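Researcher: Predict the fold of Methane oxygenase PmoA.
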Amino acid sequence: MREWSVRVNNDEQTVRAAVVTAPLPPGVTGAGAQVIGEDGRERSAQLVTAGTPSVVWLEPEMPASTERTYRVRLTDQAPPPAITLTLHEQWVSVQANGQLFTRYYFAGFAKPFCFPLLGPNGEVLTRGYPVEPREGESRDHPHHKGFWVAYGDVNGVDTWSERGKIVHQAFEVLESGAVFGRLRARNAWCSADGKVLCHEERELRFYALPHLRMVDLELTFTATDGEVVFGDTKEGFVALRLPDELTLTRGTGHILNATGHRDRAAWGKRASWCLYYGTVQGKPVAVAFFDHPQNRGYPTPWHVRDYGLFANGPFCRKDFGLPPEEPVRLPQGDRLTLRYRLVFLDRHPTPREVDELWAGFARTLQVTE
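Model: Structure tokens for Methane oxygenase PmoA follow.
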């Protein structure tokens, strides 16, 4: 059987840009997949063979309390990739439908990062400095490079300001696809003298729809070299440095979070999502940053600044005026996994729309045969 029906149920709130995963029946194989909706239209679909074999597609919007039926068909030929990953000497280029989405730099710097990040219509959504400085832009905080992960206190070592290093070790996966592109890398977090603090496995998935682009990030830290302690500091954690023209201080930008705090009042507040929006290159844009309900410290406080730093702070309490807690400790051999999503839009969404986009990340649509 190479064709079968599945039902997709959404029992909770309306979701947008939700990833649907339909497991393959036992013994079914193919090179590609097609998904046809009740309206007869074909959805872009991707056959995933790693782990639990499945077919994956994106549901642009699905109202609450609805069920949809799809025909899933395996094919002998994979469709052309919409997201293409290409390995170069110091970076991996990521293209969406033939246009640059980002580059993942893994060598030549103190830590890996994505730069630049481009919106659905080619809008540049990262500051150029210090990787590719642009005339007239701000030149503060040279450790703010594109979209990155780092922290100011891991066993007392500061990788945020690059006193410590995050060293790329190997790629485990580089995958192009009709729905998403994926890279999985192994990194070592190290002190200035090269002592390994912990190991981190990083998976990035890149998606593109007509009016939005998305990046899903999953981080797994493992205490491979003794106990790991994430101290209490605002200097972290997953971060994006936005272009000056999208900031409050030098551009058209505004900030909004899920609890209704706006602009500078959003700093340090806990929320399931945070949004930065404004105008770039004369076009309306928005960047939404989502926390996942299963993450440690959810909902995260947001280290979001008026000058364009857009970061979360899941391990920080003191600097944000929150009640103190014990530091996050990983005993030898323990693991900590965290998941986040970035969404880049070519418009200014309503708070309700952002709630629904967050739900598309945080909720799992039920798939049955």
